[in-house]
Amino acid sequence: MNTLNGKIALVTGGGRGIGEACAVALAEAGADVAVCSRSPIEIDVVAEKIRATGRRALAVVCDVTDACQVRRMAEEVNSQFGFVGILVNNAGLGRSHRFVDHPDELWDRMLAVNLTSAYHVSKAFLPKMIETRRGRVINIASVMSKIGGKYVVAYAAAKHGVLGLTRALAVELAGYNITVNAVCPGYVNTPMTDGNVDNIVARTGMSETEARKTLEKLSPQNRLIEPGEVAAVVVMLASDIAQGINGQAINVDGGAVMF
To answer: Does residue 205 come out as left (phi exceeding 0), alpha (psi in the -120 to 50 range) or beta?
Structure first.
């Protein structure tokens, strides 16, 4: 269903996991898609998958925690690709540590990747959306935007910040026909979750299978969410049918927040 024909999207952290799934799903829905990350190899592979759908692709290497790199990336995308009307702030990092003796550098890094990057990228692309009076901003947050958890103080604080950014921008930009929403996944079957599994194994001595089941049991569906499930919500929010959805944080977690 080519619901996004004629539109251009940018996905940050687009080299794997949720970002890759979103980029390909947006292309399958008809959008031309630019992807950025720090890894040129990963985004080049995703760009080829986008082109295989018949859509245009652009792969841009960028560290979205660096405001100067983000500005250069925005200039490149705008000049080579055109007006970005769909922005997916997906870049993220998951690390855990108990609060006592929490490394300050870990705190700074988690906020930079998970929160400040969305600020930098939104600041770079929103002026043209405001000028043209249309656009969709979709922030990939987390169920940790809504709840707390042991040993994830920096991650939870950053993702709570993403939700605050989403709601504030939604109110500020509503008059320009721009919507700003968040998608809040639970544990997703991605390399980031693989890292969480490895951390559990290292800290507890569990087997990899036992550690993965521990995460699966956090959902009443007893499973991990698949990246494509998150991507489907992103495509819906990017489409014209979602014009009335603004300032929302949609859970894709199998009911974990209620569990």
So the answer is: left
Residue in 119, 151, 155, 176 annotated catalytic: 155
Question: Cα–Cα distance between 187 and 224 in angstroms, integer?
Answer: 6
pLDDT in tens, 129-176: 999 999 999 999 999 999 988 889 999 999 999 999 999 999 999 999
Q: Tell me whether residue 155 is one of the annotated catalytic residues.
A: yes
Q: Determine the 3-state secondary structure of 166 from DSSP.
A: helix
The 10 Å Cβ neighbour count of residue 13 is: 29
Contact 73, 124 (CB under 8 A): yes
Give the integer Cα–Cα distance in Å for 182 and 248. 6
Contacts of residue 230, Cβ cutoff 8 Å, sequence gap at least 6 = 18, 21, 22, 140, 183, 185, 188, 252
Pair of tokens at residue 5:
């024909």
Cα(210)–Cα(143) distance, integer angstroms: 22
Residue 138 forms beta bridges with which residues?
88, 181
- Cα(first)–Cα(last) distance of the chain, in Å? 34
